[in-house]
Amino acid sequence: MKIAEVGNIIEFKDGLQGIVEKVNENSVIVDLTIMENFHDLEMEEKTVVNHKRYKILNNDAL
């Protein structure tokens, strides 16, 4: 299992996408505001995703 790094874009939970802001031991903190339809989803700006529950879409870490 490849662990995301800060700046990676990940996908999780049936299509939600976000940019990794912080990497923890078992999870990452993700900023969801990069999604075009973010305001339509009525979600918090950030969320925590377990390493087992996402796939990395963009490896261009900051």
UniProtKB/TrEMBL annotation:
<protein>
    <recommendedName>
        <fullName>DUF2187 domain-containing protein</fullName>
    </recommendedName>
</protein>
<dbReference type="InterPro" id="IPR018690">
    <property type="entry name" value="DUF2187"/>
</dbReference>
<dbReference type="Pfam" id="PF09953">
    <property type="entry name" value="DUF2187"/>
</dbReference>
